[in-house]
Amino acid sequence: MFAAATKSFVKQVGDGGRLVPVPSLSEADKYQPLSLVVKKKRCFLFPRYKFTSTPFTLKDILLGDREISAGISSYQLLNYEDESDVSLYGRRGNHIVNDVGINVTGSDSIAVKASFGVVTKHEVEVSTLLKEITTRKINFDHSLIRQSRSSRKAILCVVMESIRTTRQCSLSVHAGIRGEAMRFHFMDEQNPKGRDKAIVFPAHTTIAFSVFELFIYLDGAFDLCVTSVSKGGFEREETATFALLYRLRNLLFERNRRVMDAISRSQLYLDDLFSDYYDKPLSMSDISLKEGTHIRVNLLNHNIPKGPCILCGMGNFKRETVYGCFQCSVDGQKYVRLHAVPCFDIWHKRMK
């Protein structure tokens, strides 16, 4: 009966699907802000998840003894009174009958009355909590962490807000026959015992809550999944390996892009040099033919092997040559390798 009333409350209040009804009156005190619950999918036939309470809070699974400083704010939400008819032939009616154990002989409907009065909302200061958890780590030796980690279906969640009653509340159920002009035709003479049920529960009872899922990394760091897009769980070894390979692939792509850009720039520079060389008259550019200039030599004749040209062979494309100049020196080397045309003349033109 309590579960049926909390489900009806959540359905009417809404909150975009974030609110979860408390399933049992005996566990209502375990759904307080910063408490931990386990979220599990029932099976592939049921899309909804099942939330199971735990006796632990977020602080219990963290390393260190420091308390969590995030505050909890509260305010009045609404005044809730509800009366509704439920058909015995529906799923909700069957659930109430099984839960309450009411006598439904000769009845086709159940009247449910829930009087919660003024309810209050208590929620964690999310921004403060997010700042604090950046320096905290998960204790993997905690029993709840070990058990949740071994199950791929279990997701640890933190209760971020709870909705509570402020006074003593009552729930009542009555079985009867649905009438046309009024809700029920009560058959007092033939009404067997057990047709009415009522329960009273104390003030400050939690009737609904909402959670943020936890995503826990291999190094103990964790994130609060503050949106429905992000999903909680445990980082797996294969997930971490895939993420590392993905980052390495991106780094390789970036490196190759930079190399190609550098090659492109060097090629443009050489093209400018060569075009500047070829665009000028021979008398102005062929310095090696002038009197007193440096002389082209075949380095093989001096037992010097073929190697990259100092002007156009220093990039990834190793343009090699057997020619050079003994009158020039670079980095302590008593000669430089230069293609006969046009690198020899371009080099000496720049040196001049």
Automatic annotation (TrEMBL):
<keyword id="KW-0472">Membrane</keyword>
<dbReference type="GO" id="GO:0012505">
    <property type="term" value="C:endomembrane system"/>
</dbReference>
<dbReference type="GO" id="GO:0005737">
    <property type="term" value="C:cytoplasm"/>
</dbReference>
<dbReference type="InterPro" id="IPR042377">
    <property type="entry name" value="GSDME"/>
</dbReference>
<protein>
    <submittedName>
        <fullName>Pejvakin isoform X1</fullName>
    </submittedName>
</protein>
<feature type="domain" description="Gasdermin pore forming">
    <location>
        <begin position="1"/>
        <end position="235"/>
    </location>
</feature>
<comment type="similarity">
    <text>Belongs to the gasdermin family.</text>
</comment>
<dbReference type="Pfam" id="PF04598">
    <property type="entry name" value="Gasdermin"/>
</dbReference>
<dbReference type="GO" id="GO:0012501">
    <property type="term" value="P:programmed cell death"/>
</dbReference>
<dbReference type="InterPro" id="IPR040460">
    <property type="entry name" value="Gasdermin_pore"/>
</dbReference>
